[in-house]
Amino acid sequence: MDDSQISYAVKLPAFEGPLDLLLHLIKKNEINIYDIPIALITGQYLEYLSLMTSLNLAVAGEFLVMAATLIHIKSKTLLPPSETDEEDEEDDPRADLVTRLLEYQRFKDAAQGFELREQEWREVFYRPAPHATDGPTDEINLVDLSLFDLLEALRGVMERAPEKKGLEIVVDELSVQDRMSLVLDRLEREESITFTSLFDDDTTRLAMIVTFLALLELIRLKRVRILQAELFGTIRVWKNTNLQPS
Amino acid sequence: MEEHELTAVIEALLFVSGEPMSLERLTEVLEGTDTDKIREALDRLRQNYDAAGRGLQIVEVAGGYQIATRSECAPWIKALEKIKSATRLSRSGLETLAIVAYKQPVTRGEVEAIRGVDSAGVLKTLLERRILKIVGRREGLGRPMLYGTTREFLHYFGLKDLSELPALKEFREMAETLPEHEPIHEPASELTN
Amino acid sequence: MEEHELTAVIEALLFVSGEPMSLERLTEVLEGTDTDKIREALDRLRQNYDAAGRGLQIVEVAGGYQIATRSECAPWIKALEKIKSATRLSRSGLETLAIVAYKQPVTRGEVEAIRGVDSAGVLKTLLERRILKIVGRREGLGRPMLYGTTREFLHYFGLKDLSELPALKEFREMAETLPEHEPIHEPASELTN
């Protein structure tokens, strides 16, 4: 790791998820949410991710999925305008994302309302329910009973039960390191590979995320570069020699 | 603090404390306030509570002050306790209920084998509350009674039928953070286009 | 029962109950008394508690009436070290809660689709705190569990019932609060750096 990167402390704002981060970027750049400059936002978004990676912060899978989505949208916006002159909002590749952002913003606002109420009502106290008889204190009102209580109770009993079965957890063996070597191996054999082909062998979302994480790491280490040779061309991954691809 | 403010704070403190509060303790909590002033406020509070139509009173017991109900209200308080206890379930009741729900039809012996304690009393309570019922008898030695859940049970938990009971495994998965179980946004294929 | 007697009994019942008392519950306990009369008595009681110099109030919360302290007294109550206010919910907790509150009954997948992040852990925490509960299952593939809010939820946020939730802002309204800007034209060269 670069010493220069450790030497200064960066205070990263914490985000609840990719949508939260995107809303932050939109606000910061004073962007009209209905007309998001996707390249600018994608760039800043990826910068943030690589900053997180360089600070050794865990990047949640969702952030990577969103990165892929942004790149995908960006490649679509680069397509030539459709034959019809009228701007059809339905065709805007950003439309889905905008809808999601607005929907998320609504609940973020609602959450703020809840926070205010929480603050207010935390200042109000009730009398602890007295127990008529000296019975057990952890009685629960039937009205408040939920399936969760039932399951918790069952789990408690089962844990105490004489013959208890161990819980088997299958851990998928996927490491970012492995994926990085795989990508580099392929680049030994081929001059460049397409972005999408990286994911050909990934059957699960988790696998895709790991592959994407590996790619980001390779970019950060300047081992590979991602280039789009021409407008609306295929996105390709190149090994980072100092030679320009012809 | 102004007089009526002090009375208010003391009232809130007595209410929330749940046990007698001594003058010393009140002085401690209301640091900076004179003990005499606190005593005066307590007197005022007591007078307020002695007005007609009050169901509560300030009593001086066990070396402290406490809010308590008036004895005239006792019959209704008893009625409330009775209703409340009929709608409450103890920890052991919940455990027993959980076992019956998931293992039904089940005998008392089987419930006790899992819980490791006598469960006759709890089962009886659950029968009385109509959360459980006898669904038949097991063939064989002693033909023990079989317990199962009632419609009331489904109602409490908002279930349409027993098949809606979540599995223990499902419950464990809820806590897992691997984003594997369900695609969160778009199907995987779309991402790689 | 005379008017002031009824008020007194209700006051004592609210004091003893320790949880919100619904009109139905009160009618049940005070058998033979008209619900309308009980409602009137509650109003009188509430007025009495709204007099100056009171540290307590009658609140209507989680489907019932309950005696609670006034927020002005909070600093002193907190000085009684055994009384603690509940731990605040995290940002993700509040977010998740907001979605469930407005969309209920809702599946985990639906919550995650809106939040864009895995929400299993948060949902579990909210279940543990009894702010959310499982209310059933959605028909269809996988029959995922449905989440909803509890009585504790109403209590925690001081809501009488779900109809008291403020209306969600609409898309358009929100878009107006975001700054308008000319579209920025972007070069289409490199994707990273």
Topology:
The complex is a heterotrimer, with one copy of chain A (246 residues) and two copies of chain B (193 residues).
Chain A: H1 3-7, H2 18-28, H3 38-54, H4 61-77, H5 95-121, E1 140-141, H6 147-160, H7 176-189, E2 192-194, H8 205-220, E3 224-228, E4 235-239
Antiparallel strand pairs in A: 2-4, 3-4
Helix pairs in contact in A: 2-5, 3-4, 4-8, 7-8
Chain B: H1 3-17, H2 23-29, H3 35-49, E1 56-61, E2 64-69, H4 74-86, E3 88-89, H5 91-103, E4 106-107, H6 108-115, H7 120-128, E5 132-137, E6 145-149, H8 151-157, H9 168-175, H10 188-191
Antiparallel strand pairs in B: 1-2, 4-6, 5-6
Helix pairs in contact in B: 1-3, 5-7
Question: How would you describe this structure to a colleague?
Answer:
The complex is a heterotrimer, with 1 copy of chain A (246 residues) and 2 copies of chain B (193 residues). Chain A is mainly alpha-helical and 246 residues long. Chain A has helices at residues 3-7, 18-28, 38-54, 61-77, 95-121, 147-160, 176-189, 205-220; strands at 140-141, 192-194, 224-228, 235-239. In chain A, helix 3 packs antiparallel against helix 4. Chain A starts with a helix and ends in a 7-residue tail after the last strand. Mean pLDDT of chain A is 76; it is low at 1-9, 131-136 and 164-172. Chain B has helices at 3-17, 23-29, 35-49, 74-86, 91-103, 108-115, 120-128, 151-157, 168-175, 188-191, and strands at 56-61, 64-69, 88-89, 106-107, 132-137, 145-149. A 3-stranded antiparallel sheet of chain B has the order 4-6-5. At the A-C interface, helix 2, helix 3, helix 4, helix 5 and strand 3 of A face helix 1, strand 2, helix 5, helix 8 and helix 9 of C. Strand 1 (140-141) of chain A pairs antiparallel with strand 3 (88-89) of chain B, so a sheet runs across the interface.
